[in-house]
Amino acid sequence: xxxxxxxxxxxxxxxxxxxxxxxxxxxxxxxxxxxxxxxxxxxxxxxxxxxxxxxxxxxxxxxxxxxxxxxxxxxxxxxxxxxxxxxxxxxxxxxxxxxxxxxxxxxxxxxxxxxxxxxxxxxxxxxxxxxxxxxxxxxxxxxxxxxxxxxxxxxxxxxxxxxxxxxxxxxxxxxxxxxxxxxxxxxxxxxxxxxxxxxxxxxxxxxxxxxx
Length: 212
What we know:
Layout: E1 2-6, H1 14-22, E2 28-31, H2 36-46, E3 50-52, E4 67-72, E5 75-80, H3 92-100, E6 103-107, E7 114-119, E8 122-127, E9 140-147, E10 150-157, H4 201-205, E11 210-211
Parallel strand pairs: 1-2, 2-3, 4-11, 5-6, 6-8
Antiparallel strand pairs: 1-9, 4-5, 7-8, 9-10
């Protein structure tokens, strides 16, 4: 399956509509929050399935509405906007939750910064923002393909004439958005000691899952 992944459109969905129409073989759109009404509008304009979670501007404080699980051929995917996991400060909570829920990938937004990196065998994917990119970057989105071989993602930018499936990028390591308060700051570390994930308040975030 192939997903068009976007986040933080903040009421400006023209670029998302245009990009979607230029793509092929997209099975569904994933919108990672901010805002919920954008996801509803896209479902009408694009006449396709929109898989979405609520963001911090949607006036909702129920954690179970801001985290979603998708069962796919490559395993379970975690979808969240990320504000309730404090992803602007650190990705530790996000990574722990993904591990606790046995996810192969965690998709998030909120930082307005793109990220495509694998840590401890878990893909961390943030498509950035199409309408309000941070850090002087271009508006961005992601393409995600899931198969029995695992999840594979690429990041793309608005100045691109057409999507380049071989392109990927990561947020600079000095960005607060990729701060991991663990010894293994890089997926290439040869001295990783993964902590055992225990049940706790993070597990209580999730009380259901959606099957795709």
